[in-house]
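I had to read the description of the data format several times before I understood it. The format is easy to grasp once an entry is in front of the reader. For illustration, here is how one protein appears when written out as sequence plus structure tokens:
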Amino acid sequence: MIINASYGSDGMNTEKYTEIKVMDQKEALKAHLSNTFMDEQQLGDNAYAVQMNPETCKCNTCLQVAYFVLDNAKYWYLNFIYNFMYKCLDMTKIHFVEGDTDSAYWAISGKQIIKRYDNKQVYEDNLHQGFKYVINDQQICDTNAKYFFPTIQGDKSDEKKLLGLAIENEGDEMVALAPKNYYIHIFKQQKSEFLLTDVNKLKGINLRQNNINKQDVIDNITIGKITQGTNMSLGLQVDQLQERQLSKTYCMRKLLSTKNALTDIQIKIIVLKNSQSCLPFFHSLTTDSYIDCASS
């Protein structure tokens, strides 16, 4: 289950954004006639980068709400966990997978249905169970749910209320290495219906240009496989003025950058015997190596 609050795109002031499109000469001349035209830059013999000012922008959420979430992200987490989850849910059946500033991914062991070829719809409907089958105290849940979850269907202001949250999506499988670095099997809209789809999330790597899948994530955990990715981008290079040239010439270059996409992530620490201090975990060191630190 993916739980989300108001942040990210909600905090962007899109009124100040502009659009840059690559056009040929004919399209660029036509763009000059538009009221939204701002500027252009010639990229080649028949290629122009045209800057346009969008006619409209969307702002469905008060910007202050998004910044409130950013400033109070830790409190948002703890308030929901301790004042709701711990009070009315069976936490032995709930596992925290990973989270970010405004989101939390939970694995819930509720009502289980084995997927077969003849029960696809029943299986998928069961994935939308939420916390229904892990509630310990129904009265506390009913009393406090309104302070966190939306109560008015389709009401954006209710969905984005302060310290509130909403269920963004649900699925049946997730493997996470770190925040913004995971594989998940969730519902995504394809044409006119929602279907269970493999989704890979990887910060800093363009997944459209790299074939990174679920097995790569699993191999990183099981055998420590490091997967590399290559990003391709276009850059504008300005050539130096030559003798008798009246203006500079511009050349579009293709830039390739290779980086590690999936690597081992160290999340372990050693808690000392005094229970007041922690030290980083190092491979090949045993607990005896930390005795001197614990006694000092």
Q: What stands out?
A: The helical segments are 25-31, 63-71, 73-88, 120-126, 138-144, 156-159, 214-222, 291-295. The longest strand covers residues 250-262.
